[in-house]
Amino acid sequence: MLVALGIFVYTWIVFLADLFFPGKVFIALTFNAIISIIGFLAVVRFSTSIIQITIDEFGITKTWIKQLPFQNRPNTVIEWNKILQYKVEPSRGWIRFKFIATNGEFQILHRNHFEDDFDEFVQEFETRVTTLNQSEIVTSKISRIPNIYEGRSGLIILSLAILILLITVYHISTSRIEIKEYFALSTVFLGAAYFILQVLVNRPKR
Q1: Which domain holds residue 193?
Q2: What band does 4 get if pLDDT is binned at 50, 70 and 90?
């Protein structure tokens, strides 16, 4: 799949180069595309770590299954009564799960939704937190910190993205646009649509 993605991107690079600069930049772009594909595959291969998270009545245990090159971090155990806050923050291609404890901050970076049980982990964690907050096991309630899409900032992002979307559509429908402008406008359109989707998906369900 990664090779197919690289070939797809390379094809479009060559197509656009030949469209705007016919016969001038093919060799340079070919070299750059090959290097980019190799670099991308290398990053995916060597920049992925794997952890195992265990949740029980005592707390959370993070066990390293695979670490990054030259990394030698110890396993971590965090008791429930030491956790103060937590935050689930999505970003482009990643989800950052962070919790703040009395002995520091801890975070988990997640990427592959279809290859692990991260979503189940978050659901189980929040279920445990709800139960613990109603008991006397923790000295203070564990609270969730809203991410950028969940608070008032999410509504601001949603409003700006919709405005950009409407302006883009209006510009396309009322102006004579050259083919090269369509690529720029489509990038703006897709970017605005992405942020709208993120806000709608991550807003609290009421």
Answers
A1: 152-202
A2: very low
